[in-house]
Amino acid sequence: MTDTPSYDVTGRGPVLLLVPGGAGHPMGLGPLTERLATRFTVVTYDPLGLAHGRLGHPVAEQRVADWSEGARRVLEEVLPEGGTASVFGTSSGGIAVLDLLARYPGRLAHVVAHEPPCVTVLPDGAARRAELIEQLDGPGRPPAEGGSATPMGVFLARVLRPFSAYAPALTPPPGRLTLAAGTASRGQLLHRTTEFLAARMGCAFTEFPGGHLGTLDHPVEFADSLAETLRSSARTSA
Predict the structure, then answer these.
(1) What is the pLDDT of residues 178-199, one digit of tens each?
(2) DSSP class of residue 89?
(3) What is the pTM of this model?
(4) Which end of the chain has fewer CB atoms within 10 angstroms, the N or the C?
(5) Cα(109)–Cα(111) distance, rounded to whole angstroms?
(6) Does the keyword field hold Hydrolase (predicted)?
(7) CA-only gyration radius of the chain, Å
(8) In this structure, how many other beta carbons lie within 10 angstroms of the beta carbon of residue 126?
């Protein structure tokens, strides 16, 4: 985590913090944020500063708590005193927002975590985690440092293992958390993980368009589904 949290702000309206997946680089999220910016002030957090000049720099093995602490600091910078924000995270970002809710619930109106890969919660979680790492981190991994470094290389080398070992707190604040999986992910490991975790935590479960990369493949439909989920949660809590 860099000393000063990196983030971008666009749009107008209630604050919505986005935490990207992978190594936190917001690449490809432009269409999603553009759609959301018609309804929200979208604050896109870049935990490692990879989109802000730090791609290629040395990166230590990541800690979920560091990402959630950085997200808290971003919210402190952008929110008015006493204000709250909605929060959305996908994949590794989904794990970070679960930790954010567990540690710092006071500034959060509602949290949506999309397909967080915390597979160790499953009854066969240790085996599923080993399979997931083997599938993703095979031969020919892209570099994590230097001039040819890629966000995927950083994710595989520094994020995948520690984040996939994370087990979230099991008692979220009532009515403040929605877990989401993609319609195209049905039958797959991360859909199963998300649905299982929602039942275990006693929180809402919903489906969004597309699969694990629905934010990239179906940005308009995904943004509309996210906005509706947040509107529904606001009506329920009112």
Answers:
(1) 999 999 999 999 999 999 999 9
(2) E
(3) 0.95
(4) C
(5) 7
(6) yes
(7) 16
(8) 12
Please name the residues in contact with 150: beta carbons below 8 A apart, sequence gap of 6 or more: 55, 142, 143
Virtual CA dihedral for 173, 191, 41, 202, nearest 10 degrees?
-10
67 within 8 A of 98, measured Cβ to Cβ? no
C-beta of residue 94 within 8 angstroms of C-beta of residue 115: yes
Overall size of the chain counted in residues: 238
Task: Give me the sheet containing 204-208, strands edge to edge.
Answer: 6-11, 41-46, 15-19, 85-90, 108-114, 177-182, 204-208
Beta carbons within 8 Å of 30's beta carbon, 6+ residues apart: none
Beta strands in the chain (DSSP E): 6-11, 15-19, 41-46, 85-90, 108-114, 177-182, 204-208
Show the tokens assigned to 167.
């087990």
* Structure tokens, 18: 């986005």
Alpha carbons 201 and 17: distance in angstroms, whole number:
22
Partner residues linked to 205 by β-bridges: 179
